[in-house]
User: Fold this.
Amino acid sequence: MRSVHGLVFKYGYGDVKGEKSALSSNLLIENTFSEQGLLCIEDIVKQLFEAGPHFSLITKFMYPFKLTPPKGGFRRVATSFKQNGAWGNRAEKINALVRKML
Assistant:
């Protein structure tokens, strides 16, 4: 949940009246999702993490995250993660990569 929290707080943008707006204020969330009972950014994080009942509504509202390369860069880009490379399925270790990108 810590990774999702970091992503939303650092890279979270939403579509507010047709304009891209940073999710920096709980008032913005409250005005947009008050009918659904979502009052703050932490409620958004919880819905995204748990794939709650308002997950599809929130994903339509939010813009995709644009991440930077991890601090220290990738190592051995030409080989898969299973062979000590950079690309491929990281399974449980994806959170470590996301934290390096924040």
Notes: The beta strands are 13-16, 19-22. The longest helix spans residues 2-11. The longest strand covers residues 13-16. Helices lie at 2-11, 26-33, 41-50, 55-61, 94-101.
